[in-house]
Amino acid sequence: MLTLADVFNVPQALKRLVIGRAMRSEELGETLLPKRLALPIFASDPLSSVAYATQEILLVLTVGGTAFLYLTPWVAAGVVALMAVVVMSYRQVVHAYPSGGGSYEVVSRNLGANSGLVVAASLLVDYVMTVAVSVASGVDNIISALPSLADHRVELALGFVLLLMAMNLRGVRESGKAFAAPTYLFIGAILLMVVTGLIRAVLGDAPVASSAAYGIVPEDGKDTLAGLGLLMLGLRAFASGCTALTGVEAISNGVPAFRAPKSRNAAATMAVMGTTAVVMFVGITSLALISKVHIADDTCRLSGFPGDCASAPQQTVIAQLAAAVFGGDHSVLFYAVQAVTALVLILAANTAFNGFPLLASILAEHRYLPRQMHTRGDRLAFSNGIIALAVVAGGLLWLYDADVTSLIHLYILGVFTSFTLSQIGMVRHWNRTLATETDPSVRGAAQRSRVINFSGAVTTALVLVIVLLTKFTQGAWLAVVAAVVLWLMMRGIRRHYDGVAEELAVDDARAESVRPSRVHGLVLVSQVHKPTLRALGYAQAFAPDSLEALTVAVEPDATGELEGRWRELDVQVPLKVLDSPYREITKPVVQYVRDRRRSSPRDAVAVFIPEYVVGHWWEHLLHNQSALWLKSRLLFTPGVMVISVPWQLTSSSRANRPSRRAPGAVRRGEPEPRAESRAEPGAESRAESGAESRAESRAEREKAAAPEHA
Questions:
Q1: How far apart, in Å, are the Cα atoms of 79 and each of 82, 234, 287, 558?
Q2: 402: burial class by Cβ within 10 Å (0-12, 13-18, 19+)?
Q3: Are the C-beta atoms of residues 241 and 75 closer than 8 Å to each other?
Q4: What would the pLDDT profile of 167-224 be if each residue is shown by its tens digit?
Q5: 640-648 and 546-553: which strand pairing?
Q6: Of 80, 137, 340, 387, which is most buried with the most CB atoms under 10 A?
Q7: How many Cβ atoms sit within 10 Å of the Cβ of residue 693?
Q8: Nearest CA to 523 among 473, 460, 572?
């Protein structure tokens, strides 16, 4: 619930409004998913991809006009067979590696760290592409129903990415509740459309697509393909249809998010997902052939197309089927199918929003990505990974104008790289199990699993080769380059972390904790005021071997006044004035400190810097700039300690007015508030300031009264 203090703290109030209240670490168990929510969260991508998998097959086959559409059933059968093999193979992964990590963990353990990084880089790239392609395809379906929105394609896509990011920042369970209904409505709408269309076909009233009367002009020289050319066309169509398999591995990555028994629930969810996706894909493809859907990558190749082919968009395959089955593109059920299809395609990106942060978290734990990726946010989600995915996917959508045809060529390469390597890794896993296992029943199960994974490895390896051959020159090379760059970056990050760990490792505690011979204290002075006197007092409390105040003579008159005031107050610390003919502050101080270090290398130097603590962002621009720059330079000097001595201005007390600790404070290292104290934060510093003021006033009164008493 928002408090009055939150209302005045606008950024904090906005954050609470978008992602909700912060959750304690102990509440992590409450975010675990039952199967009914896990299905729409982890399987929305493969389920929704059936909405465009058939369309991608038809777009490839129609390069030769309508002459090669007879290949559609064979291509679809190959996709279905591959889906069955991959789902069965990943069920073995779920049971063998229930800790999550999926393909990355399987390959890392069985084929080595470098191979595991190949899988990780491929999957991270593919998760980004999943968001971009799913959102762009969803926007396409919206435009099919509302063509007037065609000019706002990119804005719509970016808006949906932001919405998905916000929903996932609220936590896995909440996003599952939000996305469950659209996913189940989509499944129901597609099955209703397929069943209705097939019943009409059986009864002799087969639906006819609006594009059935269109002719398709073949691309140059593509109407007489035979032999190798025909084979390559079929393989290209198969590779495009394999987009139906994207996201299958997400369940194996997200096993820890399931309720117990985790492996069994994840495997059951994967089986339901595979069966549902196959039924929907076969139904849509059959209905597209029955209703004679004609679609081309270039609208101007459709002879008989009404309107301006250069600007008017084609209806998607799903839109044409819904119009044909339910009585036109103005019927209620047509709009219902388009609405749930567009919604689920956009929400399909949620699979990536769950898979990407989980995988990035595991990689960060293994020191291949920045440690921040392993940090959970206020809602116990991996917030940094979610935000990073949204930023990169949004950039791709903007760069490619949210065009599915352009983005699809960068797609699925990473999926089949991870498929292939993970199945090879599983074969080695079962080989190791069989080498040590003596129980006949366990050996029999392992042998069956090895056969399944070997079949999956061979099949997905062939598909990977096909995808490379058919899509590499069409844009897939960019995905390869991105994966290679990411692989090199992760190895570099690991080298950095390993180097830091080695450098910081303690071999001899006594040798590493040798005390300096002496400590020299330096207090930086710009004026003689309360913050300066507090810094001097704190420095004296540290009891250094020597102590002096340090100021820089930028303006001679001001420096003279400072020295006079110093003598007048009889400050018992010597004041050192550094000459600065070029009016610099940082360079003379840094040079003086380094000279002290060079003259006594075994000594340490403690530099005390008075700093104002302010409460408004604009006040930071008015104070502490010199101190900030000095600290940034001094921290690079060995043997030098930089100690900030804060002085809280009145405005700082308003910046932390709520008495409760701010959500996320633990991750930032802020201390717990004391339960017994309900005083307003900042009161202690103000009381201290007031006590000092009263002490000074009392001292002045006593000094004034001293002659009279004498």
A1: 5, 12, 17, 82
A2: buried
A3: yes
A4: 777 765 555 566 678 888 889 999 999 999 999 999 989 999 888 888 877 766 555 5
A5: unpaired
A6: 137
A7: 11
A8: 572
